[in-house]
Amino acid sequence: MIPVCPLAALPPGEAHRLDVDPPIAVFHTEDGEIYAVDDTCTHQDASLSDGWLEGGEIECPLHASSFDLRTGRPSSPPAKLPLRTHRVVISDEIVYVVPSEEPPNLPPGVRAGTA
Length: 115
What we know:
Elements: E1 2-6, E2 14-18, E3 24-28, E4 34-38, E5 52-54, E6 57-59, E7 66-68, E8 74-76, E9 85-91, E10 94-98
Antiparallel strand pairs: 1-10, 2-3, 3-4, 4-9, 5-6, 6-7, 7-8, 9-10
């Protein structure tokens, strides 16, 4: 498990980026849910933690692809590949991420180690 931050340091509507390889974005939705997905859009190299969070979706700041934070699936183009999702654990008011063992869907030209 990777410690992210205290739960109180991640208010609803905000995101926290973990600088791991590849980066992971942790989102706290307005309805109180916390999700973790790869931070790099699958369409082009853009940080989703800089995007717009609405409900259970994150919109990429570059070309407006949206992804469902629960499943990682894109809900609007131009992205076609899903984001890798990660399990979130909250213990003693600290947010942790358990990274997925699945390979990431990185955009063309981006490889793990360079994301």
